[in-house]
Write a structure and sequence with these properties.
Strand content: 5-15%
Structural class: alpha/beta
Distance between the termini: 26 Å
Shape: globular
Radius of gyration: 23 Å
Bound molecules: pyridoxal-5'-phosphate
Number of domains: 3
Strand order of the largest sheet: 1-7-6-5-4-2-3
CATH superfamily of the largest domain: Type I PLP-dependent aspartate aminotransferase-like (Major domain)
Helix content: 40-55%
Number of strands: 13
Number of helices: 16
CATH topology of the largest domain: Aspartate Aminotransferase, domain 2
């Protein structure tokens, strides 16, 4: 009976991208070490029924969370009073950082129309936070050559209503580290909080520093940095649903908490956005941290560092493509160096050869490109060689095929659509022209769809994205 059910689940999984082996270069993180996944699964199974909602009923949750947070605090150089929270992922950490800053600004500075100052390269999670918690996003463009925000531009965007300034270490799209020290100093000078989004890079960069590499300071040791997020389900290679949010001190952390005793049920005191909270990701994270250990992470970080450098050099040497920015962590963005090469066609060719590189549509001054998250499973010489070999073939094929074309008449017609008043027929037609199925299914080759998407005004693209999601989730 169980076997039948599990085998049906396995069948469903067969259509997914692989989560192990390093060839899926977004969404998944594989350390490539034996036994880690099994350990995480066994630890998670033992805690799957434990509810982190009530820490007095389940003291094990408190012990595990204190251990994991203390680890992050040591690594990212918090001071004695630094305090943290374990959350369900990077987005939840970013949401809580913004919520905490909003409440801090309201209660200590009387700010009632709070603003969130962030670089154009900041993660989408901050826009979600602004939308959910009613802050006005003040988006600061980045340097068009380096894709880093300039501290002067941030300074000019800070007003009396600024609740929080955000910087990335590194940014997801370009893999570069914003000038954290300069921005944090500026924020401090104006009495404003400053969050470092080290969701993807914190664990990797922290261990690279421990291994002796010189890095720009990006962590809590930087004066003016008041909070920092670091995901464990990325470069700590733990099971999904694990992140840590650190605050300068316990008093600041408290502004984001919720307590309610004015109802007939059990009094609720909660530190995150969830109610009932599975302890499984926390237990899995604790177990994986114990198992890999500081020396293990230093080794993994060094290997990823070398592989990223080798890949970057190899990509720069392939005719027809180029690095969009100099990688400063473990992320690479590659763009076309020749109008005959469409990066998204390169992506389709790579996918056909068993590699997933993530398409990043053109935005602002950032051209269409492919994103590579380099994890330890892809960090051996052989995998690097195979990837570069495949890439060279993919670029040659893309050159021969030519760029995906968009019918200009279609774009013109689409531009006349009002995203706020889109009828069902308009949406049907727009998606059909883009090559999306009536059931929301996307074609195997994505370059033509992405070409249409890129040509649309962003608001219309966002509206159509919701339409696709609605068709996929049709129950
Ligand atoms: C992944 C990521 C996030 C969001 O994290 P999730 O775990 O996907 O919710 C935020 N910021 C950066 C820079 C990231 O890479």
């Amino acid at each position: 009976m169980n076997d039948d059910i599990l085998s049906r689940l396995e069948t469903l999984r067969a259509g997914d991208l692989p989560v192990r082996g390093g060839r899926t270069m977004a969404y998944v993180y594989d350390c490539g070490l034996d036994g880690i996944e099994e350990l995480a699964a066994a630890a998670a199974a033992r805690f799957a029924g434990v509810n982190g909602l009530d820490m007095t009923a389940f003291p094990s949750v408190v012990a595990l969370e204190n251990d994991v947070v203390a680890w992050a605090k040591r690594l990212l150089r918090g001071a004695g009073q630094t305090a943290g929270t374990f959350t369900g992922g990077g987005t939840e950490s970013c949401l809580l950082a913004v919520l905490t800053a909003r409440e801090h600004a309201r209660r200590t500075r009387g700010v009632n129309e709070p603003e969130l100052v962030l670089p154009s390269t900041a993660h989408a999670a901050f826009h979600k936070a602004a939308q959910l918690f009613g802050l006005r996003p003040v988006v600061v463009p980045v340097d068009p050559m380096t894709y880093k925000v300039r501290s002067d531009d941030i300074a000019a965007a800070i007003t009396d209503d600024t609740a929080l300034v955000v910087v990335s270490a590194p940014s997801y799209a370009h893999g570069v580290i914003d000038p954290v020290a300069d921005v944090a100093a500026e924020a401090a000078r104006r009495g404003v909080l400053c969050h470092v989004d080290a969701c993807i890079g914190g664990w990797h960069l922290g261990h690279l520093r421990l291994a002796g590499r010189e890095l720009p300071a990006f962590d809590l040791s930087v004066p003016g940095v008041t909070s920092l997020s670091v995901d464990l389900h990325k470069y700590a290679y733990t099971a999904k649903g694990a992140s840590v949010l650190l605050f300068r001190d316990a008093e600041l952390r408290r502004y984001g908490w919720f307590a309610h005793a004015s109802w007939p049920g059990c009094p609720v005191g909660s530190t995150t956005l969830q109610g009932t909270r599975s302890a499984a990701p926390l237990a899995a994270a604790w177990a994986v941290l114990e198992r890999i250990g500081t020396d293990g992470y230093k080794d993994l970080a060094q290997r990823v560092h070398h592989a990223t450098a080798a890949l970057a050099a190899g990509i720069a040497a392939i005719d027809g493509i180029r690095l969009l920015a100099r990688p400063e962590a473990s992320l690479i963005a590659l763009a076309a160096a020749d109008p005959c090469v469409d990066p998204f066609v390169v992506g389709d060719e790579m996918r056909a050869m068993g590699w997933y590189l993530q398409p990043q549509p053109a935005f602002g001054g950032s051209p269409a490109n492919l994103h590579l998250t380099v994890t330890a499973a892809a960090a051996d010489e052989e995998t690097v060689r195979l990837l570069l070999e495949a890439l060279e073939k993919a670029v040659a094929a893309a050159r021969a095929l030519g760029p995906a074309r968009v019918d200009p008449a279609l774009v013109e017609a689409a531009a006349r659509l009002d995203p706020d008043r889109l009828t069902a027929e308009d949406a049907d037609l727009a998606l059909e022209l883009a090559g999306v199925g009536a059931d929301g299914a996307l074609p195997e080759r994505m370059a033509p769809v992405l070409a249409v998407f890129q040509a649309l005004p962003p608001r219309l693209g966002e509206r159509l994205l919701a339409e696709v999601v609605g068709r996929l989730y049709n129950s």
